[in-house]
Amino acid sequence: MKRPRVLLVDDEPDLLDLLEMDMARMGLDSERASCVEEAKTRLQQGSFDLCLTDMRLPDGIGLDIVRFIVEHAPATPVAVITAFGSTENAVAALKAGAFDYVEKPVTPDKVRSLVRSALKSAEVEPPRSGIRPLVGGSQPMQQVRGLIEKVARSQAPVFITGETGTGKEVAARLIHYASARAAAPFIAVNCGAIPENLMESEFFGYRKGAFTGADTERDGFFQAAHGGTLFLDEVADLPLPMQVKLLRVIQEKSVRRVGGVNEEPVDVRLISASHQDLQAAVSAGRFRHDLFYRLNVIEIRMPALRERREDLPELAEFILQRLSDSRAGQAPILQPAAIEALQKYDFPGNVRELENMLERGMALAENQIIDAADLNLTPMEGSGMTGVDGNAGLQAHLDDLEKQAIQEALAKTGHNKTAAARLLGVTFRSLRYRMERLGME
């Protein structure tokens, strides 16, 4: 069996010697180069399974090699060695197309972990069957799927933005299952649903006796996602003290349990998402700029459903088939009038609202045929839709009552949305969606 080949690029002979010994211990062949031009020559002369390059070189920088590989040998993972604490260089390398980076001092453990992950990334298989796809052939969805395929081979943090219900978690899962981490856990966390006083123990775990009720040792989200992907949904809802702790974990790649003394190394890829404008949150002082810089290395924007109306017939058919399969029944048929009504609707709740609408339509439909009336669509302000039921006055009145109830609950709880949701008897996610739909966010 052919041994993997690694290209090592550095102008320090001692470091190259150490790296060569590490590669040999791992059963890998290696070649060395001491500058950008020599590295390019070796890359043109033969193929490599991995390139590991220093950032500072006599005739240029490691980013020159990253860009050369991305252009001429895109299947070859490239990792960059950066100075300790050089956040800007690390992020620049990931944005340029690097698989990952390692900070100095370079230790054998760091190198071996990186090499194993990089070599796995070259053997990535397509997403496994049973994973929910992103449906639609529109241009925006083609661009999203192309980005997912590209970033899946990287370790770079990904930030997924888009309105509520656009499929941000679906995109995150597709990235995970198309990556070298597919066999490891995918842990999804709703950051806005965790009480602030429990956040540290939920994220990092705790030791037995760390606080009242800590009867056993428990892993946190990072330990549970070790080797895999941690998806932080609604990351903008994290309080500032927790943002500081999260930034340290990203930088050190280790966590300390509540009540613990030693730090534990964790190998986790972070994917985060929010329906909020994170840049605006930074400007308002609600989100740390340095954390934003580390999370938003690669951004994927999920289009709203009203921006891809041409996908609605295919998407509706897919959802109806999935709902029918879960009930072991036959998928109903959407009448042309129903499809037309859907395409005129603005969908403030996006795909999630469409799913609820179609599920309601299935319940009301007769003879497995869903007509426009079965969808019970209500007119949207400014949408140009003429309303199936013609009850605009009633809907406006109900919206006013709902808004008043939410405002009263927020006032009683000091604008704590989690507490307000409990008071109203709804989930935090449902409250957030209702506030957005009513223009209260």
Short description:
This protein is an alpha/beta fold and 441 residues long. The protein has helices at residues 13-25, 36-45, 62-72, 87-96, 108-121, 139-151, 168-177, 199-204, 221-224, 240-252, 278-283, 289-295, 312-326, 336-344, 350-364, 372-375, 392-412, 417-424, 428-437; strands spanning 5-9, 29-33, 50-54, 56-57, 60-61, 78-82, 100-103, 158-161, 186-190, 229-233, 254-255, 264-265, 269-274, 298-301, 333-334, 369-370.
Please provide a written account of the structure.
- With 441 residues, this protein is α/β, with parallel strands linked by helices.
- The chain folds into four domains: 5-121, Rossmann fold; 139-301, Rossmann fold (3-Layer(aba) Sandwich); 305-375, Helicase, Ruva Protein, domain 3; 392-437, Arc Repressor Mutant, subunit A (Orthogonal Bundle), CATH 1.10.10.
- Helix content is 45%, strand content 14%.
- The protein is built from 19 helices and 16 strands.
- The strands form five sheets. The protein has a five-stranded parallel sheet with strand order 2-1-3-6-7, sandwiched between helices. It has a five-stranded parallel sheet with strand order 9-10-13-8-14. It has a two-stranded antiparallel sheet with strand order 4-5.
- Helix 2 (36-45) runs parallel beside helix 3 (62-72), helix 17 (392-412) packs across helix 18 and helix 18 crosses helix 19.
- The longest helix has 21 residues, at 392-412.
- The protein is globular, with a radius of gyration of 25 Å.
- Residues 380-393 have low confidence and may be disordered.
